Each structure stands twice: as structure tokens, then as C-alpha cells.
Amino acid sequence: MSFKFNIFNCNIQMDPNEKGEDKRKKISIKKDPSEDLDSPFLKLSHYQLNSSHDTSQMHDVTTLISQTQKRLWNALKRRYKYSSTLDPAQNYLRKHADSKICLAVLYIDLVGSTNLCMTISVDKLATIIRAFTYEMSSVVQTYDGFVLKYVGDAVISFFPSASSKYVACETAVRCGMSMLSIIRNGLNPILNQYDYPELSAKIGIDEGENAVVQYNTDKNSPLDILGYCMSVSAKMTSLTEPNKITIGDDVFNVLHPELKEKFVQVSYTEKEWKYVNKRTGQLYKLHTLNL
Description:
Helix content is 38%, strand content 21%. By secondary structure, it is an alpha+beta fold. It has one domain: Nucleotide cyclase, GGDEF domain (Alpha-Beta Plaits), CATH 3.30.70. The strands form two sheets. Strands 3, 4, 5, 6, 7, 8, 9 and 10 form an eight-stranded mixed β-sheet that branches. Strand 6 (200-214) and strand 7 (223-226) form a beta hairpin. The protein is globular. The two termini are 24 Å apart.
């Protein structure tokens, strides 16, 4: 898996006074000394340091978190402006206009935006929403996914699965796990410095066939994705608890056994969850990340 972002200098320090504990719990990433920032140190939990199969991915997530802190710190001081684009997704979909393609779809929905509206000014709220959407989009791109669109305070993305459903589903799940890590360890430590409410999010992921639709005959008009998978992903996200990831059974069944162990099956009433498995006719099973 390839990761695409700029790496800045960082210092990793081990606490020599700690005994009988996994010293990785005390890993902290200092600010880049070349930057005029007084950002707090970043501390990663034992779970996050061990949440992937290899240490290279851990390092990359750590770098993403550090970059997130720097951008938000500067943005809150009006020294940085976020700028996002949906062009990569549109360019990809344009090749498949008016056809059906297989995708792993990831919804991430910000929790607590209403509280933010009531506690901070509009300009600060806008900065935080921009930071959330930009940083989540950055994670998607890091995992070679595409950001489809922004809907309110939600980000919808997809990972093509035609060539390998296994790779697309596992990549989407790991992307979601990194998103939660970045919110918890990248955005929130900076927001705490300004006494802002902490952010949390919920994520839904499913995989399936979707139709690529262009709303106008103009070849440059926006394209969108429609399908059962999109509806399922949106609904399961709405049912997910804050800081959790819910995945559909089609995604769960193709995950690596080690990753499967992190999920537990969840049940809802027929009133809450009406989607069925097209192959079995039974209610479609859902699984939630058990942190």
C-alpha cells in the first residue's frame, strides 16, 4: 500500500524512567523545530501503536496526525487556509459514466456540530468544519481512495473494488481507523488548547455495485453514485455510536482474520434496520469496531 504525503522532521523520545510498561505508550512527536508553533506534544495510545499489521503504517499515521495538528494550529491563528478538491473522484467517475461499478463506500459523519454552533463563533465553526473535511479527505487520499462529496458535516468517499474486493474493503476499514485516530489525537488536542468542544465522528462502510450517474448531458457536469450500497452505508452510519465504525457483512467476510477480531456483530430491531441481504433474504448483518 502506498502513502502519499510530505514528511517533516520529527523527534521520537522514550521515557527512560518508565519501568514495567510498554514504553511505546510514551512515544510523543514534537513540533517541527523549524516552525514557529507552540503546539502541544502528540501522545499516541498503546492501541493505536498496535492497530496495524506493520510498523511502517503506524509511522505514516503518526505523521498524518502531526501534520493535522500543525495545519489546525495555523488555521486557528489565521495563518493557514484549507483548500479541498473533488476533481480526482470526478475524473475517475467520468470514465465510468452511465455504468455500474463495484465500490467500497465509506461515510464519516461529524458528531457534535450542533453543540459547536451554540458555543463558538461562525468563523471559528467554519474553520473547524473545513479542518475536519480536509483532514478526513487527506486520509482517504493517503489510502488511495476518492472523496465523492461533502454533505453537511459528512464526508463520503469510495475505494474501487472491481480488481480486488479484499484489498478495497480492508483499505477502507483501515482508512476509517486512521480517521478516528486523527480526530482523537490530531484535531482534539489543538481544540482543547482553545477550550473548544472535542470532535467525534461515526463511520459506516459497505461494499457493492453502484451506478455512476451524470445529472446533465454536459460532459463536464458533476457525477454522483447511486445504489443499494450507498443507502446501506448511510443508514448504518446514522445508527453507529460516536467514535465507532460499523461495517456491513459483505465487508466483514473478506477482512483479514486479525482485523475481523476487532469487530463484534450488532443487532437492531426491524424498525431500526430494514435492509436485507440480497442473497439470503435475511436482515443484512452489521459489525462494529470493538475498541
